[in-house]
Specification:
tt1808, chain A; alpha+beta; 4 helices; single chain; 6-stranded mixed sheet; two-stranded antiparallel ribbon; 184 residues
Amino acid sequence: MTTARDYGQGIDPEHALKYAVQHHGGDRTEIVEGRVRDVTPGWDHENAAEEIRDQIRPRVKALGCVTGSGNLDLPGSSNWYVPDLAVVPKELAKGGGALLPDQALLVVEITSESDAETDRVVKRKRYAEYGAPLYLLVDRMERTVTLFAGPGRLGYTEVDGPHPFGVPVRLPEPFGVQLDTGGL
């Protein structure tokens, strides 16, 4: 007997879209407000991520965490993000699946010309809504760094910056690290 499900009715569109993105074969594809985007960072983008990773690595290891750009699911929305850098507990990283923003200790996005407004506005709002405790925005177009903290449904309640490249930015506990932003 044929059912409505056989004709595609009754399928959860959020689940179907996220399943397709996870299984299409690309390793860095995200969904931002329902729009599928392949994320292909350039070397200058990767250099900025590496500069941050190198500076926080000792503290990340001491916290029992790892850094990477794994998938972050935002359940109940049409969003599936691949941050430029996230710090997550090592035990959670071993599960193989997507994590939630509130499971990350820090999320970093580095702007490109094609996605600067998405990182500045949309992702900042969503990361706060989904509880990412710290969101570091490296704005390569504006040559600034801004740290957002105190997430809530209406956005972040604490903003440190924007600071021009070259001005140190302090990551609060559990990091307690002063970031040198000169090499970003």
